[in-house]
Design goal:
Helix content: 40-55%
Structural class: alpha/beta
Radius of gyration: 17 Å
Strand order of the largest sheet: 1-2-3-4-5-6-7-8
Order of helices and strands: EHEHEHEHHEHHEHHEHEH
Number of strands: 8
Largest sheet: 8 strands, parallel, barrel
Shape: globular
Bound molecules: 2-phosphoglycolic acid
Strand content: 15-25%
Oligomer: single chain
Distance between the termini: 11 Å
Number of helices: 11
Length: 247
């Protein structure tokens, strides 16, 4: 079955570097059967989108404004993302929460904005090391899911992918046990079933994210209930990310 593979390029690459990256990466994934999505920085979105038009690789953004338009200096709206060819938007990444103090209520508004513009959402959720150590991870996941998805209709969930990313694993090389990921993913599905419906929960796509690379990709992609991967650090290396995409 095809996997959903997202490359979160974070705050890497200027325009020239983006061009070099795409020239190197794109030919290597030409025959991949997976759904590959590249998420460059805002300034590189339009250029990347143009380069992707002749490929099967899709365009995603790393963030979006929680408001539709107006006097919000420095923000980029869902409609702007849509207009440059984005299909997906990453919402609620833990780095947004940590460094930009993003709250679940804001994330909820961002999701509504994206859905209103016909954009698909990758909602990132995950527990901290403290929560895991104190067995509060389920409580934490449930709170994030319920608050971020508040007020959405069941049929809107088809445009939402959940990325399970244990915070301690992001960018650290610290990997959770496969069993822990399997349990967390199954728990996420059970929360969605309780809040929405069994049908929605069973068709929901769930990604794993956190220190995925070419060496461990098979392990994480092979975990029961995991439909794909959200890759940060390894996605900025074209050779390595192509290997991940071609699993
Ligand atoms: P990482 O990042 O692969 O570098 O751990 C994942 C992410 O930030 O989504």
């Amino acid at each position: 079955m095809k996997k959903y593979i997202f490359g979160n390029l974070k705050m890497h690459f200027n325009l020239k570097q983006t061009e070099e990256y795409l020239e190197n990466f794109l030919p290597k994934v030409e025959s991949s059967k997976n759904e590959i999505v590249l998420c460059p920085s805002f300034v590189n979105l339009m250029f990347t989108g143009q380069k992707l038009t002749s490929t099967k690789v899709l365009l995603g953004a790393q963030n979006v404004a929680s408001e539709a338009s107006g006097a919000y200096t420095g923000e980029v709206s869902a409609s702007m993302l849509k207009s440059v060819g984005a299909t997906y938007v990453l919402v609620g990444h833990s780095e947004r929460k940590k460094y930009f103090l993003e709250k679940n209520e804001t994330i909820n508004k961002k999701i509504q904005e994206c859905l209103g513009q016909g954009l698909k959402v990758v909602l990132c959720v995950g527990e901290s090391k403290y929560e895991r150590a104190n067995k509060k991870h389920k409580q934490s996941l449930e709170k994030q899911l319920c608050e971020c998805l508040k007020g959405l209709y069941d049929n809107e969930l088809k445009n939402i992918i959940i990325a399970y990313e244990p915070i301690y694993s992001i960018g650290s090389g610290v990997l959770p046990k496969a069993k822990e990921v399997e349990e967390a993913v199954s728990y996420i599905r059970s929360v969605i079933q309780a809040e929405f419906s069994e049908k929605t929960a069973s068709s929901l796509k769930i990604l794993y994210g956190g220190s995925v690379n070419a060496e461990n990709v098979k392990t994480f992609a092979g975990i029961k209930g995991v439909n794909g991967l959200l890759v940060g650090g390894a996605s900025i290396k074209p050779d390595e990310f192509a290997k991940v995409c071609n699993i």
